[in-house]
Design goal:
Length: 153
Amino acid sequence: MEAGPRDTAHDGGEQLSPDGPDEAPGGVTDDGPGVDEMSAEAEVEVELRPQRRLRIWQLAPIVILAAVGSLMFAFPLAFEFGDGGAVVAMLGLLLSCCAAGWGMMAARRVGHTWPGLPERGSGRRPDWRVVSAYALLFLGAAVLAVWRVARLR
């Protein structure tokens, strides 16, 4: 026995075509509400995709590398461990910078940006003042770190 609509009108009543009624009551209409059925209320858009966030397995190596690097950088500078202190401090600075770069790349991959810079894929150009402020801040920190390590000698 087939599952489907049956034509039971044998006595000359309304016949069904294989794909439904021949004409819809009131004619064919577009999908959706008509102009008079539209409400003046504002619609709320909801994002169905989950937000992209950094997971713990992405953050843990970055945080551990940054902590180890900063400790390697800080202890020789604070306690001056003889002749090898400068080498250990520079290695710690290198590890800290690697962790910072790794963190920035991971954050960029999930869509985060630095404050003042446009979002990735927006088509807008970054403001030169913001970029120069970031460059000066980074350069100042690098100069101070190298100067402090050089003073250990």
